[in-house]
User: Which sequence fits this backbone?
């Protein structure tokens, strides 16, 4: 065989093997994560989990979120838009996955803000000012607290509440559940218990639309 | 001419190993999304260019390619060996050059109880070095 032909065939064969391998692996992986979510349904929602939307909404989106995560910031308005487009039909359950070093303290601040009934405004304020309090992806609680001023929060109370053991327990529980569900990146979404087959806005939109369509039948 | 054919085959073999290693590394990192630690990156730096450099010496056959490719393989080899020793625990923790986040001493894959990714890298770099050295000595000059 001519050297060029040999080289061409081998190179094409290697690339083909890679592509087929990647496809097979991805589809197997998607099946596995669906089964994992099915087996670990109890880990999806906890009593302590904050929710947004009507309690009896037919479609439940569980989102594992890190307040310091840029992609979480990008997805937040997209999820809100989906909820606004389908009033009373979608409920958002918020789970914390503070994977950034120091993010757990920011989550504690959010949980403390919740005690004062201001979780969602606090979350929105922190996502909007993320770059300012998390320079170079290093969350700094002292900076984050500055961006909670002006929401009408009692910041002194908030600082005390942040140290409460039940908040630490809640964060530990969320991280444990994230591990059980193999959530290693944020944001991660589960729609009526089903994980995204691949990450992205389109797959999320499709999963939500399918779930909405299923409830209309 | 016979020597030329043999040299071509040896360099081609080295390219094949480099190509499989590169695609393998990309499969581990991009498809299986295994974490890539600092040492893995250095090994990639010395492996990936071989996939491009070696074929340039194959068409038409240019034995000088050994001189350009061998330094990469020779520099990549100690990184892979260092990584294997780190995983084996021969090198103590405090001198490991890893940034926090993904510790290099973590084994993300272990086949048959002993095959780890850095071990594959050691084998690949060693084989590439051997083939290139052989190709050099097949030189007519």
Assistant:
């Amino acid at each position: 065989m001519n050297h060029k032909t040999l080289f061409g065939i081998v190179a094409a064969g290697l690339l083909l093997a890679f592509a087929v391998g990647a496809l097979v692996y991805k589809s197997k992986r998607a099946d596995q994560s669906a089964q994992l979510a099915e087996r670990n349904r109890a880990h999806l929602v906890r009593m302590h989990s904050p929710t947004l939307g009507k309690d009896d909404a037919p479609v439940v989106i569980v989102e594992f979120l890190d307040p310091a995560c840029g992609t979480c910031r990008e997805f937040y308005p997209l999820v809100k838009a989906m909820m606004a487009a389908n009033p009373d039909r979608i409920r958002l359950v918020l789970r914390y996955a503070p994977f950034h070093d120091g993010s757990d303290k920011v989550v504690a601040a959010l949980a403390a803000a919740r005690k004062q009934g201001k979780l969602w405004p606090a979350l929105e304020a922190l996502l909007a000012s993320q770059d300012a309090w998390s320079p170079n992806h290093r969350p700094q609680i002292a900076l984050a607290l500055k961006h909670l001023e002006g929401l009408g929060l009692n910041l002194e109370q908030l600082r005390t509440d942040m140290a409460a053991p039940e908040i630490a327990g809640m964060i530990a529980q969320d991280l444990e559940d994230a591990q059980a569900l193999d959530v290693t990146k944020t944001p991660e979404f589960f729609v009526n218990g089903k994980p995204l087959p691949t990450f992205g806005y389109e797959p999320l939109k499709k999963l939500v639309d399918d779930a909405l369509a299923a409830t209309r039948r | 001419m016979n020597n030329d054919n043999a040299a071509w085959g040896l360099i081609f073999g080295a390219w094949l190993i480099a190509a499989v290693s590169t695609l393998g590394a990309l499969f581990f990192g991009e498809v299986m999304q295994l974490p890539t630690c600092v040492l893995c990156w250095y090994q990639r730096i010395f492996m990936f260019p071989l996939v491009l450099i070696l074929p340039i010496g194959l068409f038409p056959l240019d034995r000088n390619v050994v001189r350009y490719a061998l330094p990469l393989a020779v520099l990549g080899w100690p990184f892979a060996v260092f990584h294997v020793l780190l995983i084996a625990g021969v090198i103590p923790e405090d001198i490991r050059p890893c940034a926090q986040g993904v510790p290099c001493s973590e084994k993300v894959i272990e086949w048959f109880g002993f095959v780890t990714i850095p071990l594959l890298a050691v084998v690949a770099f060693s084989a590439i070095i051997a083939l290139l050295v052989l190709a050099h000595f097949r030189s007519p000059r």
Notes: The mean pLDDT of chain B is 85. Residues 2-137 of chain B form a domain with the Bromodomain-like fold (CATH 1.20.1550). Chain B touches chain A through 13 residues (CB under 8 Å).
